[in-house]
Design brief:
Number of strands: 12
Order of helices and strands: HHEEEEEEEEEEEE
Helix content: under 10%
Number of domains: 1
Distance between the termini: 26 Å
Strand content: 25-35%
Radius of gyration: 17 Å
Number of helices: 2
Strand order of the largest sheet: 1-7-10-5-4-3
Structural class: mainly beta
Largest sheet: 6 strands, antiparallel
């Protein structure tokens, strides 16, 4: 079931390019936004929803909701790389705050002049339980009755870019409940001060605008847990790297996992 869920996500992967991509990146996660006093809108998305794999998402309007598809992370004992270098192996188990070396690309053909790659040091730093009252800020708060929000913070440092670009997305993560099934992600449209994100620094202007190597972005993602349950782990399945063949991505069925 996990592989079927991942295949749907994998078919959606595509990279953002240019300044327009920077505009989208500026909306990633539950950002501080414009400071509008209007209640934020929201929607939930399971990890199987392709619309949730390319950002931590803030976008415009339409709401969709899919049911959860249970999944469990397989185990493998492999030591993570702690600084820029070899990718952290699939199946690595980490504690919160421990680093993993991850990557992303635009396109899947290295011969393409527009093909770019990036590497990162990624850390899941905090899993913070919220209160069901936090959800009252949303216009559609009634649909989340009985749910508890959890705020998952990911710190990502850009360690390399093969070519200057402002259109490279940081790695994204999923979260799991106590039974190992994927938790629903709450996608926020607008400002939500309980869960704010920051972006990579940029350098240059116009066509030369690029993310700044060495800068760090902090992403806050909101996941929902039913009453009596909780977020127990966070997983990385390499969703920002587009492979020529689905089977080439070994993280899909053997993700990197962070837990307390």
């Amino acid at each position: 079931m996990h592989q079927q869920k991942s295949a749907r996500r994998y078919s959606q992967l595509s990279a953002l390019t240019g300044v327009a991509a920077l505009s989208l990146v500026a909306l990633v996660g539950c950002s501080g936004g414009s400071g509008s006093s209007e209640s934020p809108a929201s929607t939930t998305s399971s990890a199987s929803d392709p619309s949730s794999s390319s950002t931590n998402e803030t976008s415009t309007s339409e709401r969709t909701e899919e049911s959860e598809a249970p999944s469990t992370s397989s185990s493998a004992a492999a030591a993570p790389a702690g600084s820029a270098g070899a990718l952290t192996p699939p199946g690595t188990k980490l504690k919160l705050g421990q680093p993993a070396n991850t990557h992303a690309n635009t396109g899947n053909d290295p011969k393409d002049a527009k093909y770019k790659t990036a590497t990162f040091i990624t850390k899941v730093t905090k899993i913070v339980p919220g209160s069901s009252a936090d959800l009252s800020a949303f216009k559609d708060a009634a649909k989340y009755a009985g749910q508890t929000p959890y705020y998952v913070y990911t710190e990502t440092t850009l360690t390399s870019l093969s070519k200057p670009t402002a259109g490279m997305s940081a790695p994204s993560v999923d979260a799991q409940l106590k039974d190992g099934s994927d938790a629903q992600k709450l996608i926020v449209f607008g400002s939500f001060d309980k869960c704010e994100s920051t972006q990579f620094d940029t350098t240059g202007k116009g066509d030369a605008l690029s993310l700044k190597v060495g800068s760090t972005a902090i992403s806050c993602s909101v996941f929902l847990a039913p009453k009596g349950d909780q977020i127990s782990s966070v997983s990385y399945t390499d969703p920002r790297f587009s492979y020529v063949k689905y089977s080439d991505n070994q993280y899909q069925d053997n993700p990197i996992v962070w837990s307390k």
